[in-house]
């Protein structure tokens, strides 16, 4: 039986104690399905299709121009971006091919019974790697994720029977209505109100929702409102789009994601049947948080797919573009960019599938483990444990969200730079990817909020002794003073790298204990601490994931062993530099000036035990091998 784990416990568990799931372990059957999804998107989303999506619907445009109540601005905003009819057409085709119901059981029109997290993330990664995937990628991701999961995880049998198959097959489209003008990251401050009618049969909803993805064509909204305006009664409701009193505004003109529909949704005395209440009264905030936790990993996976695509675009452009008589791929500055981007993509990929595999390990098969229940009861038990496990690993989900979106931001920036002037032209993919990526640092909880949540949960888990930080401190003290050696279990070629990661964990533990001693419970709300602590957690999680993946691949004689080793060594070395900087800031912040020299001495002592390598030479070797292979090879 799988040992019960807790979010953030990778810090206190020795490097290599636990095997991790890696993308190399994915079954051939799952790979073939992912390739099918990728090929479907490639076939359907061509340059011609993308232009159709970005062009106005001429018939509706003419009708609007003839309407005296419409001015030029309204016409432009209402009909030029995007062409909803083209998006819906593509989504229907995706539904017919099973891609809208990847997360849904076969019983309700999905691809398979209880699909694994690994399989779902593999599909998301492959779809995001295709050209023009942005054209329906946002709509598809939001539908599959926050559009379906509230109903899938918290809906009762009647609600699922009425709506789930329609959503899984693409007959209907889903949207998630949480954000309001005054309620973004602070979701608890929402103003939308739900009042039970006098006959007790319907809830009457009033309020305004803002920046709602898929609002231009959604058939079913998951709407969050406060029952009777009570802050403790945030509740979710399933609201059909054709409900009287529900209306949407124009599609917003955005910096990026031009081919997605983003609108304001207004609810004016919208009557929602009582049976469309999702979950219990007051459970809405928890539903919102758990669904967003799942969405954060899905978003990181999409960022990964986009990042890998950009790395491959950079490689191709490096060979196609010549300056001073040679392809720019042979210039050191270009090789530097390609190597750094490949290192980041490898670490992010390793961390995503590590978490997906861990979640899958914790989910019991309800049909083999539970007896005496009907099929529907077993399914209900299954989703109850799924939501608990998603919640358990909130820390890792937050780390992946902010690190994944920022890694993508770095890679799309390098991609534009490498393409030069062409990269700045919006007709071409690099410019679109550059503009599109920014929203990934904002939605699913801003990156600042995700850092706050990750650090806050780490503090809470330590306070509840789910993370034995007090006991770990003793290990850290002995380790820093050299009384014991790091406890590691990896391939012999990676022992020095693993020891360095173990020292980095010890430094985080030491820093955490110093901050806790200085600030006490105030640490839970101090965002200066949150920022650096979350950065340290993220850097360690991604780097250790890359290290463990490489170790297992070396043990299994997987391809590209030397390239993996070089990437891992570089990642570990770079992690040290960052970790020591963040730790030093926090330690000086948490101590009196009289103790600063002692702190610096401890850090220098710890630093002397870590990996020292020639990173420039490593990047040259990494770039040379990737350019030889002419692609990101993993």
Please give a structural write-up.
The chain is of the alpha+beta class. It has 4 domains: 24-171, Butyryl-Coa Dehydrogenase, subunit A, domain 1 (Orthogonal Bundle), CATH 1.10.540.10; 175-281, Beta Barrel (Butyryl-CoA Dehydrogenase, subunit A, domain 2), CATH 2.40.110.10; 285-441, Butyryl-CoA Dehydrogenase, subunit A, domain 3; 447-629, Butyryl-CoA Dehydrogenase, subunit A, domain 3, CATH 1.20.140. The chain contains 22 helices and 10 strands. Strands 1, 2, 3, 4, 5, 6, 7 and 8 form an 8-stranded mixed β-sheet that branches. A two-stranded antiparallel ribbon has the order 9-10. The longest helix is centred in the middle third of the chain and has 37 residues, at 284-320. The chain is globular and about 75 Å long. The relative contact order is 0.10.
Summed up, the domain count is 4
Overall 3D geometry? globular
Mean of all residue-level pLDDT scores = 90
% residues in beta strands: 5-15%
**Global structural class:** alpha+beta
Quaternary structure classification = single chain
Proportion of residues in helical segments: 55-70%
The CATH homologous superfamily name of the largest domain equals Butyryl-CoA Dehydrogenase, subunit A, domain 3
What CATH calls the topology of the largest domain is Butyryl-CoA Dehydrogenase, subunit A, domain 3
How far apart are the first and last residues' alpha carbons, in Å? 31 Å
Strand count: 10
Q: Give the uncertain stretches in residue-range form.
A: none
CATH architecture annotation name of the largest domain: Up-down Bundle
Largest sheet properties: 8 strands, mixed
**What's the number of helices?**
22
User: Roughly how many Å is the radius of gyration?
Assistant: 25 Å
CATH class of the largest domain: Mainly Alpha
């Amino acid at each position: 039986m799988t040992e019960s784990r807790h979010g953030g416990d990778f810090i206190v568990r020795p490097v290599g104690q636990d095997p991790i799931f890696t993308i190399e372990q994915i079954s051939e059957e799952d790979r073939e399905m992912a390739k099918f999804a990728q090929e479907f998107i490639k076939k359907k989303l061509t340059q011609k299709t993308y232009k159709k999506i970005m062009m106005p619907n001429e018939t509706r445009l003419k009708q609007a121009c003839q309407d005296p109540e419409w001015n030029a601005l309204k016409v432009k905003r209402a009909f030029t971006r995007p062409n909803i009819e083209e998006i819906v057409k593509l989504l229907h085709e995706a539904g017919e091919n099973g891609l809208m119901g990847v997360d849904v059981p076969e019983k309700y029109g999905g691809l398979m019974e209880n699909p694994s997290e690994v399989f779902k993330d593999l599909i998301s990664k492959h779809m995001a790697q295709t050209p023009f995937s942005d054209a329906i990628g946002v709509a598809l991701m939001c539908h599959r994720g926050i559009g379906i999961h509230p109903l899938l995880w918290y809906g009762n049998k009647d609600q699922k029977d009425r709506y789930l198959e329609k959503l899984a097959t693409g007959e209907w489209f889903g949207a998630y209505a949480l954000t309001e003008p005054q309620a973004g990251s602070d979701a608890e401050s929402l103003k939308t109100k739900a009042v039970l009618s006098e006959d007790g049969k319907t809830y009457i909803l009033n309020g305004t929702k803002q920046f709602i993805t898929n609002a231009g064509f959604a058939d079913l909204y998951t709407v969050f409102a406060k029952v009777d305006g009570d802050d403790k009664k945030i509740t979710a409701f399933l609201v059909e789009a054709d409900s009287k009193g529900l209306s949407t505004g124009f599609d917003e003109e955005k910096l990026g994601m031009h081919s997605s529909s983003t609108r304001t949704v207004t609810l004016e005395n919208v009557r929602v049947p009582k049976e469309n209440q999702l979950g219990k009264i007051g459970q809405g905030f928890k539903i919102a948080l758990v669904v967003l936790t799942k969405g954060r990993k899905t978003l990181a996976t999409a960022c990964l797919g986009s990042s890998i695509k950009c790395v491959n675009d950079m490689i191709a452009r490096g060979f196609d573009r010549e300056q001073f008589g040679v392809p720019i791929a042979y210039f050191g500055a270009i090789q530097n960019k390609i190597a750094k981007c490949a290192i980041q993509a490898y670490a992010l990929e390793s961390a995503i599938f590590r978490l997906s595999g861990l979640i899958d390990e914790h989910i019991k098969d309800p049909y083999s483990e539970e007896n005496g229940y009907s099929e529907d009861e077993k399914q209900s038990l299954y989703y109850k444990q799924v939501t608990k496990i998603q919640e358990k690993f909130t820390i890792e989900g937050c780390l992946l969200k902010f690190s994944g979106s920022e890694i993508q931001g770095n890679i799309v920036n390098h991609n534009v730079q490498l393409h030069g002037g062409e990269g700045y032209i919006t007709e071409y993919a690099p410019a679109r990817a550059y503009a599109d990526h920014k929203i990934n640092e904002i939605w699913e909880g801003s990156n600042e909020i995700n850092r706050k949540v990750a650090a806050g949960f780490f503090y809470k888990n330590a306070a509840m002794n789910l993370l034995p930080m007090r006991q770990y401190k003793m290990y850290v003290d002995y380790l820093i003073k050299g009384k014991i050696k790091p406890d590691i279990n990896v391939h012999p070629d990676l022992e020095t790298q693993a020891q360095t990661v173990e020292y980095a964990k010890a430094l985080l533990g030491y820093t955490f204990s110093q901050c806790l001693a200085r600030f006490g419970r105030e640490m839970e709300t101090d965002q200066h601490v949150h920022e650096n602590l979350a950065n340290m957690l993220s850097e360690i999680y991604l780097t250790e994931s890359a290290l463990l993946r490489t170790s297992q691949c070396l043990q299994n004689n997987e391809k590209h062993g030397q390239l993996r080793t070089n990437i891992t060594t570089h990642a570990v070395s770079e992690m040290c530099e960052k970790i020591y900087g963040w730790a030093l800031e926090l330690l000086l912040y948490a101590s009196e000036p009289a103790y600063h020299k002692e702190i610096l001495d401890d850090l220098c002592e710890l630093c002397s035990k870590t990996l020292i390598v020639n990173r420039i030479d490593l990047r040259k070797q990494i770039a040379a091998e990737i350019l030889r292979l002419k692609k990101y090879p993993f």
